């Protein structure tokens, strides 16, 4: 891993934390907020690729468990993990990894110069929604005692906003890559 890799990981960790400055929005169904931080998770995977994207998210998780107020609403601490949002937070790591892997495999050719917007969008949907929800939904169900149906209904609420975030992340990654080819790694 190079110094540039570490700088990019730290930069996208900072982007995710900065997006947490926007206040979380509560939904009625489950005690998990809508947050813009998922946009940063998809951006990290789509722009940086699997290893560095997952690294940026892992750094956010590390700062969280160390007690720093890096999550939306200024939250942090080890207690987040066994709580209702803990699965979603941990799911950001494989979510960014899968987003980046799909971008690397299907969206980018010729060292980053040829890139597909549609493939970036599909990668963000699969990694940023499906993978994150696959960890988050059962975790919320187990930690709250709510049934899987209710936990999944919460995710259905998130899916509307997260699809828009996937579109934004895909457009940004696609355009960044055209003007400044970063090979996904
Ligand atoms: O702040 C936390 O403790 C983690 C928040 C997790 C929020 C999840 S991530 C996927 C889904 N989309 C959202 O906007 N919110 C939830």
Automatic annotation (TrEMBL):
Bilayer disposition of the protein: Multi-pass membrane protein
Subcellular compartments: Cell membrane
Pfam families: BioY
Key words, A-Z: Cell membrane, Membrane, Transmembrane, Transmembrane helix, Transport
This protein's record includes keyword Cell membrane: yes
Main location: membrane
TM helices/strands, residue ranges: 6-30, 42-66, 86-103, 115-135, 155-176
InterPro entries listed in its UniProt record: BioY
Stored PANTHER family: BIOTIN TRANSPORTER BIOY (PTHR34295), BIOTIN TRANSPORTER BIOY-RELATED (PTHR34295:SF4)
Family membership: Belongs to the BioY family.
Protein name: Biotin transporter
Natural source organism: Streptomyces celluloflavus
Top-level taxonomy: Bacteria, Bacillati, Actinomycetota, Actinomycetes, Kitasatosporales
């Amino acid at each position: 891993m190079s110094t540039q890799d570490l700088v990019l990981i730290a930069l996208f960790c900072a982007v995710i934390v900065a997006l947490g400055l926007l206040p979380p929005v509560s939904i009625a169904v489950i005690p998990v907020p809508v947050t813009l931080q998922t946009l940063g998770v998809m951006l990290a995977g789509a722009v940086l690729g699997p290893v560095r994207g997952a690294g940026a998210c892992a750094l956010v998780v590390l700062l969280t468990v160390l007690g720093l107020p890096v999550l939306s609403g200024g939250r942090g601490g080890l207690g987040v993990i066994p709580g209702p949002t803990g699965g979603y937070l941990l799911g950001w790591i494989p979510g960014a990894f899968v987003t980046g892997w799909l971008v690397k495999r299907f969206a980018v050719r010729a060292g980053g110069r040829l890139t597909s917007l549609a493939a970036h969008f599909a990668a963000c949907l699969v990694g940023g929604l499906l993978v994150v929800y696959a960890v988050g939904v059962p975790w919320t169900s187990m930690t709250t005692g709510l049934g899987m149906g209710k936990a999944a209904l919460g995710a259905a609420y998130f899916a509307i906003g997260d699809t828009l975030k996937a579109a934004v992340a895909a457009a940004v990654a696609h355009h960044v890559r055209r003007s400044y080819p970063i090979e996904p790694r």
